[in-house]
Write a structure and sequence with these properties.
The complex is a heterodimer of chains A (197) and B (391). Chain A is mostly helical and 197 residues long. Chain A contains nine helices and no strands. The longest helix of chain A has 23 residues. Chain A is globular. Chain B is of the alpha+beta class and 391 residues long. Chain B contains nine helices and 23 strands. In chain B, a hairpin with a 6-residue loop joins strand 9 and strand 10. In chain B, helix 1 crosses helix 3. Chain B starts with a helix and ends with a strand. The chains are: A mainly alpha (197), B alpha+beta (391). Chains A and B meet through helix 2, helix 3, helix 4, helix 5 and helix 6 of A and helix 1, helix 2, helix 3, helix 4 and strand 2 of B.
């Protein structure tokens, strides 16, 4: 990888971690088409493949604060994807021999994270998590997500340092992940295994 | 197992070539050796990754991105202007405060015409689904409603299967060793439909809302023993060699014959055992009593036992047959059944009215329909959200 390109992607990840949606869209478009053929092997319908990929990228998005600290984004993304495919195998095999029919609404692997869960459900839980945040943290998070302000703009707006804003946004994401986890969506687990790469 | 072997296994699985045994092996791996599997899948991805993906419809991609990004977009509750001075924030805040005050004021002015109208709560429907869950020995929880019919989980040689009609059964699968002293708990929360389960010995148990039962995955010892709270109806499978026991707190029910109901909610002092068929023996503290079909034993903490001959079995079993059925029931009894079924909280504004109720209401009725019926008998309610206050 050329130095220039590496620098660019580093900057891209910082932008994504700052909540820049256009930067995330770029990342999504770059990887979506490449992931799809592999993921497709684990499912029988396009709809399920769509859902699985959506799960992968929701995980990326809700772990965006970690992106600038990851050395090998490719390996990280592969691990997230593998985890989703593994869950697909589990569901398929757990369902057992009773039915040949394949569907996304699969059997009961208890540790199933996001599948079968619509984005609406995640959104509802995130909203509840945000509601429970300390006032200052909540305000900064809403300025970022609801109003689309960059950390620098939020810092200026509130007369605090950019670092404080960034740290607060990281804390907010941690709050959200732990809330989602309490409700059965294991998002932070990712952290455990991508440290191996 | 070498990672090259795992790789072959995964490939065979993906190509639909895996034998039953290989599928079983892979399933075990997904639980016991996740890391190795992830590594193999990562390697496959790294090799198979095309440098450039196929092109996708731009609009469709945009929609997908928007959907994902919406995951953490709290609904815009208020419009905050992007550039705003502190002063206009304060102005907005005081306007909001004014609005809140205005609405409080509005509510406090009594509407004379409405004075005698009892508020019927917004439609709370009878439970339409079952939200029961099984807690496994290792602490994992399986939510049964989110599981398709088929095998739910495998513990040793015992598989838990959900049938098409929602019944849960434990049965032997494969030739592994029977798990010893592995306990599962089936929990059926309030506001959830009745669930029925067949234990590994063939004993059939129906569980009412707000109830739980703990049982071994396989009955290994010399006796069969389960623990429960709430309400359950049992049809015990005959096994002369292994006596069946149901335990609730310090009350122990020894079962020699088949059909009986146990009513033992934590918020009620009485534990009521009603025998429909066969014979059971109830022990509480030092007391002990045998039941004949149609008899009921009311046991209380501290070991008191009271036998009631010729109980109204139909009424006892109404819950399982889809009805509320009362005859000479106190308002508290009526309301606690309603609270559990609709998952609402009941409060009494000024003590519990001393009245008795009789009647049959289908459990499929909406909450407001049930309250309306009660209201016709002169009980008045006020409700807010899931709390019903009796005036």
């Amino acid at each position: 990888m050329k130095v220039e390109e590496a620098n660019n992607s580093r900057e891209l990840f910082v932008r994504i971690s700052d909540g820049d949606e256009a930067a995330f869209a770029f990342f999504f478009k770059k990887h979506y088409g490449r992931l799809r053929p592999f993921v497709s092997r684990f499912f029988r319908s396009d709809l399920e493949v769509d859902d699985a990929l959506q799960e992968v990228f929701i995980k990326v998005w809700l772990n965006r604060d970690k992106l600038p600290h990851i050395d090998n984004i490719g390996a990280w993304l592969r691990t997230i994807t593998s985890r989703v495919c593994l869950t697909a195998i589990q569901k398929d095999l757990t369902r057992g021999r009773h039915t040949q029919q394949f569907s996304a609404t699969a059997a009961g692997v208890p540790e199933t994270p996001l599948e079968r869960t619509s984005v609406a459900e995640i959104r509802r839980l995130v909203a509840a998590a945000v509601e429970g945040m300390p006032e200052a943290r909540k305000r900064i998070y809403l300025l970022s997500r609801q109003d689309g302000l960059k950390p620098a703009e939020i810092a200026q707006h509130l007369s605090i340092s950019v670092n404080t804003v960034r740290n607060t946004l990281v804390s907010a994401l941690k709050d959200i992940r732990s809330y989602l986890e309490q409700h059965g969506h294991q998002l932070s687990l990712l952290f455990l295994f991508f440290t191996f790469f | 197992m070498e990672s090259s072997d795992i790789r072959k296994l995964v490939e065979r699985y993906l190509n639909g070539e895996a034998s039953e045994q290989e599928r079983h092996l892979l399933q075990m791996l997904t639980h016991q050796n996740e890391d190795a599997l992830i590594e193999v899948l990562n390697a496959m991805q790294a090799e198979e990754f095309p440098l450039h993906g196929a092109t996708h419809d731009q609009q469709e991609m945009q929609n997908k991105i928007k959907e994902i990004l919406s995951a953490d977009h709290p609904a815009p509750a208020k419009v905050v202007p992007l550039k705003t001075s502190r002063r206009s924030w304060m102005w907005a805040a005081s306007l909001a405060a004014l609005l809140v005050m205005a609405s409080v004021f509005f509510i406090l002015i009594p509407d004379k015409n409405a004075a005698d109208v009892t508020l019927i709560p917004e439609e709370i429907q009878a439970p339409e689904s079952n939200r029961a869950m099984i807690t496994l020995a290792d602490g994992r929880t399986v939510f049964l409603d989110s599981v398709d019919s088929g095998q739910v989980v495998l513990q040793g040689n015992m598989e838990v299967v959900k049938l098409d009609d929602g019944q849960i059964i434990y049965r032997v699968a494969g030739n592994q060793v029977a798990p010893e002293s592995v306990f599962n708990t089936l929990h059926n929360p309030r506001g959830s439909r009745v669930i029925d389960i067949k234990l590994s010995d063939g004993t059939h148990v129906w569980l009412n809302a707000g109830s739980a039962i703990t049982y071994p995955v396989a009955f290994a010892g010399e006796e069969r023993k389960v623990k429960m709270t709430g309400e359950a109806y049992f049809e015990v499978a005959h096994d002369g060699a292994k006596t069946f026991f149901v335990e609730v707190d310090d009350v122990r029910i020894r079962v020699t014959g088949t059909r009986f109901n146990v009513h033992a909610y934590d918020d009620e002092t009485d534990i009521i055992t009603t025998l429909l068929q066969g014979s059971v023996n109830v022990t509480a503290g030092k007391g002990s009593a045998a039941l004949n079909p149609g008899d009921q034993i009311v046991s209380r903490p501290g070991g008191s036992l009271k036998r009631i001959a010729g109980a109204d079995v139909e009424q006892v079993m109404a819950w399982k047959n889809g009805f509320f059925s009362f005859s000479s029931a106190s308002l508290k009894e009526v309301m606690s059944q309603i609270a559990r079924w609709y998952d609402v909280e009941v409060r009494y504004a000024s003590g519990i009215p001393d009245r008795k109720f009789a009647g049959i209401i289908p459990r499929t009725s909406s909450l407001s329909a049930v309250l309306k019926i009660l209201e016709e008998t002169g009980v008045h309610f006020e409700s807010e959200g899931r709390t019903i206050t009796i005036k």
